[in-house]
Structures are given as structure tokens and as C-alpha cells.
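Q: Start with the shorter request: fold the first protein.
A: Done. Sequence, then structure:
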Amino acid sequence: MKVNPFLSGIAILMSALLAFLIFKLGRENYVVMFGAALTFLVTLIPSLAVKFNSGRLSVNLRILSFVFFFIGLIFQIVVALLALTLWLYIVLSGIYILLFLLMYINIKSKDI
């Protein structure tokens, strides 16, 4: 496994900018902004900056990461535009991130 530091930096900056967008779209809640940044960061770094020795494994994990990134982007925009309670947002975001990590680790360990 190799991590490209330049692409990691781009992923971090892109996550911060998208989180700021979510912050401004919604009710300007810092918890939602940090949750969005964490969601984007967890999905963007594996999709952009991580490379494995097996080409097939890299493609599968990148596709999984990009799919979760776009679903997370839609989820964060919907949360920003709707007035969800904070506890519901935290629970849903936590389940979403943990589900992504569970699938990522499962695919990585099976070398699919």
C-alpha cells in the first residue's frame, strides 16, 4: 500500500472546501461542518491517494470510495437543507462512516 502525500493534501483541501460549502448551505452549524469534513476526508483519501500493489484491489477500493463519497455528498447537502436534529445527524453520519470502513476493510482483507 502506498499513500501519495500530494494527492492526500488535495483530498484534505477538497474536503475542507466541501465542508465549508455544507456549512454555508445549511444553518451554519459547526458540528455539521466537521461531520461533513470527516465524511469527505474518510472517503476521498482512499479514493485519490491510496494505491495497492494489486491493480484489481485498488480499482475495487477506489470505486467503493467514490460511490460512498458521492452518496455522502448528497447526504450532506440534504442534511444542510433540511432541519434535522443534531443527534440524528450524528447517529446517521457515524453509521455511514462505520459502514464504509467496514466494507473497505472487508474488501481489503479478502483481496477481492
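Q: Next, the second protein, separately.
A: Sequence, then structure:
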Amino acid sequence: MLQQRQDSHSAHIGGIVIWIIAFYIEGISESFYGVSYELFNISILFEESFESIGTILLFSSALDYLSDIGLDLTAERINNLAKFQNS
């Protein structure tokens, strides 16, 4: 279970780093607009791609972490849940 949480943390950090790169590309893409329209379109394509990949990594890390928590049912936790449901 601990290994899954480390993978989830790595995906979370990776998603944030990719989003930062996307924001940087978005910032410099305006400088390409006056130089070459094709370069501007390519920079927008990369920026949107990085935003999508970053979002996918962030959501996958959240889902991985939540599924890891949901599947970590020990006997003690099952008993506590049963007591909670019966009260």
C-alpha cells in the first residue's frame, strides 16, 4: 500500500510541474504571435497538451490515493465500520 501512495505522490508532483510548464509556454506564446503564426499555433498546441496531461496526472493521483485508502481495510477498521453502522 505504501508504494501506491508514493506513486500517487509522484504523479501529483508531476502534474503540478507540467502545469507550471504549460503556464510558462502560455506566457511566451504571445511573443511568437508577431514572428510566425505557425510557431504561435504550435506553442498553443503544446500548452494545451501540457495542461491536459497535467490535469490527467492530478486526477489520477487523487483517484489512486482515494482507492488506496478505500481498499486498506484491516480487521480493526472493519469492526469500527460495523459499530458505526449499527449505532
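Q: Describe the second briefly.
A: The two ends are 30 Å apart (CA to CA). The chain has a mean pLDDT of 81.
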